[in-house]
Write a structure and sequence with these properties.
Blueprint (H helix, E strand, L loop, with lengths): L10 E5 L4 H12 L3 E6 L2 H15 L3 E5 L5 H14 L4 E4 L14 H28 L4 E6 L3 H4 L5 H21 L4 E8 L5 H7 L20 H12 L10 E4 L18 H13 L1
């Protein structure tokens, strides 16, 4: 679909790049000629993912342990990255979420979602943006959001809030940083099943026929998201700024994706809370 060297010469950081969609995007970027940096909290997982990506593509991958919930750690990571060379692209992929009855959420549970999803994204964006602007270096910020930014979403309210705030950041910085050579764009994926997200969002007991009700009758494939991300961060998308592209097969036009949970019983919610407490 793309020229092999579409991303040649670009240095890209993917937060949460050791698994799931982050790893899928990262491997695609490498295959298109980019140099990749991935970060996360578990260095062993990152190193394992990096080794697999190198073997698959022959590309250069650096793994850095960083808890993006901590601004000082983010700044230290960016300093270490810039010592070798500036980034060209930041992909804000790391996030947290789970389904829960909102009125029963503890403050700690809310913070567990907002800290990486909202604060971590903002910390990484500020740290990269500041360095780009000070060094007069062009950059791109791609944030992975959710169709909850359009529909809202019951039972994942902190995540919907965080993703909506990041969309506001994307649109605001497009105006503020665009003149300084920094583009901001976003993707709102629909269902692209991953081991981590599926376990949190689709536990046993949820409607099993949901994927077939997508207008296209299926879930998304990781390669489809990775291709869209590759285009948006490429020079071919240089005139796209401040926009969020929805990639969900049209699902948000039919449902927010949470309606089945309105019919859950107290017993079902209790079983879910008990299972989560064991994790």
């Amino acid at each position: 679909m793309f020229e092999k060297g579409l991303l040649a010469g670009k240095r890209i950081l993917v937060t949460g790049g050791g698994s799931g969609l982050g790893a899928a995007m990262g491997q695609r970027f490498l295959a298109l000629g980019a140099e990749l940096v991935i970060c996360g909290r578990r260095l062993e997982r990152l190193e394992e993912a990096a080794a697999g990506m190198r073997a698959a593509t022959g590309g250069k991958v650096t793994a850095i342990r960083c808890d993006i919930r901590d601004g000082a750690s983010v700044d230290a990571m960016m300093t270490a990255i810039w010592q070798e060379a500036p980034l060209d692209v930041l992909v804000n992929n790391a996030a947290a979420t789970f389904i829960a009855q909102t009125e029963l959420l503890s403050f700690r549970a809310v913070d567990a979602i907002l800290a990486p999803t909202l604060h971590g994204t903002m910390y990484c964006t500020l740290a990269a943006g500041r360095r780009w602007i000070e060094g007069k270096h062009k950059g791109v910020v791609l944030s992975i959001l959710s169709t909850s930014t359009i529909t809202g979403r019951a039972f994942t309210v902190p995540s919907a809030m965080a993703k909506s705030a990041i969309l506001a950041m994307t649109r605001s910085l497009a105006v503020e940083w665009g003149p300084k050579g920094v583009r901001t764009v976003a993707i709102a994926p629909g269902s692209f099943p991953t081991e981590g997200a599926t376990g949190q969002l689709r536990p046993d007991g949820r409607d099993e026929g949901w994927a077939k009700r997508n207008p296209l009758g299926r879930t998304g494939e990781h390669r489809e998201l990775a291709d869209l991300a590759s285009f948006l961060i490429s020079d071919g998308a240089a005139y796209i700024n401040g926009e969020m592209v929805v990639q969900d097969g049209g699902a948000h036009l039919r449902s927010s994706g949470a309606e089945d949970l309105l019919h859950w019983t107290d017993a079902q919610w209790e079983r879910l809370r008990a299972a989560r407490a064991k994790d």
